[in-house]
Write the structure tokens for this entry.
Amino acid sequence: QAIVEEEDAPEDLLPRAQIVTVMGHVDHGKTSLLDYIRKANVIAGEAGGITQHIGAYNVKLEDGRRITFLDTPGHEAFTAMRARGAKVTDIAIIIVAADDNVMPQTKEAINHAMAAGVPIVFAINKVDKPTANPDKIKEELAAMNYLVEEWGGKYQSQDISAKKGIGVEDLLEKVLLEAEMLDLKANPNRNASGSIIESSLDKGRGYVATVLVSNGTLKVGDIVLAGTSYGRVKAMFNERNQRIKEAGPSEPALILGLNGAPAAGDTFHVVETDQEAREITNKREQLAREQGLRTQKILTLDELGRRIALGNFQELNIIVKGDVDGSVEALSDSLIKLSTEQIQVNVIHKGVGAISESDVSLAAASDAIIVGFQVRPSGAAGKMADQEGVDIRKYSVIYDAIEEVKAAMEGMLAPELKEQITATIEIREVFNITKVGLVAGAMVKTGKVKRSDKARLIRDGIVIFTGNINALKRFKDDVKEVGTNFECGISLVNCNDMKVGDMIETFEEIEVKQTL
Ligand code: GDP
């Protein structure tokens, strides 16, 4: 049950502060930068330090201009919020330590920002260190096609020391410049709407939520509705723990009075009466029950043909994960080359390793499918993908992946042969038996394994062997099949690397009819 907002007339719109998120690899200085900005003298003439952690704060620069920082560093939070429909961030600062390298999480952060269409400003940090080499970082960025301005590219970048405060003022100047080009505006003279940043249950104060106003002005006494929670705002506080009566566009506020804890990223609206709030939340609860957890249909490969046929489908977003860099690059390149005049194929993120929760949330937020080459989702990521309806396609042959995506783009669905997973088996012991080779003592965790199945050996989410089952035993006897929660002995043809903790995934190849 979405609330329809009236559009503002252009003459009612006034400039608003930009909202900035800092992202980057762990230990590259996100927290230090935010801390410095919070404490430092860049914030001229503000009474009372920012003592409260409320998830966001608004700082004033010497010339009076303001910037709002989201204090939820990390792209996981950023994308989780986006997956819920909140487009909170105007600009992303990507921080990279100059004594290190562009790291996997740096790449992830860049890809998450790009997927959201948020402009990037690079902060090359720790330049106070003798081992710092900012040029090397810029070179690595250039190699990824992110050429910084001083090298003739279009990305602004600033060398800084978050610890000593060197260059931070210049960084903020560049961030402001980026914002000027966005021409951010809002109408302060209307009922407020915006996003939930955090919420919790406080023993003394009841439900507490931090909100960031995106349009209008939120006032004490307003009836706020977010997700399936609502209530009259009893009191509001700013990040300096001062009581406030109202919060305008781009301003964060901590509010008391809701009857529940909405999720981070939920949008909030102000409604006129309690009655109206109750009706909308009732409808939303009913809708949520009917649809399960899913609120929006995310793209699956099977659905692609239908969407293309309906027209106006122009972009296919794909996340590629694989076991080695070479395959990831090769597969990504081939997928991008499938682009046609009608459909642009974008690889919005690629990387080596198991499919993670971060990948799934990026897919959910960007309407993307995940292509895994010789890798599997982690347990939590698999569950999350089921919940969110994210399509994870697993392949062991690059050609198959390309053919299947191509077929889906041409509207020709369902390959003839499809793998059906029959069981997952956990290896608990490994015996090396002369003349026979490695035999695993194992437990069937899900499904039922048949002697005739094929099998894959998976270690830390990466497929390291694929082949046939050599022997399947219960105690000393050869058996045809073993069901869930039974122990078994299993060996694979020509597999001479098995370890305790590895998983075996068994599968059969079945014929699938064309489904559409
Ligand atoms: P985060 O994980 O990205 O939030 O990184 P932190 O802000 O926690 O910083 C990680 C470590 O790097 C800490 O020990 C900081 O003191 C240090 N650090 C951060 N910025 C700088 C800097 O500009 N110069 C130096 N020398 N150390 C820094």
Observations:
- DSSP finds eleven helices and 31 strands in the chain.
- Residues 24, 26-32, 73, 125-126, 128-129, 161-163 surround guanosine-5'-diphosphate (CB under 6 Å).
- The first strand starts at residue 14 and ends at 15.
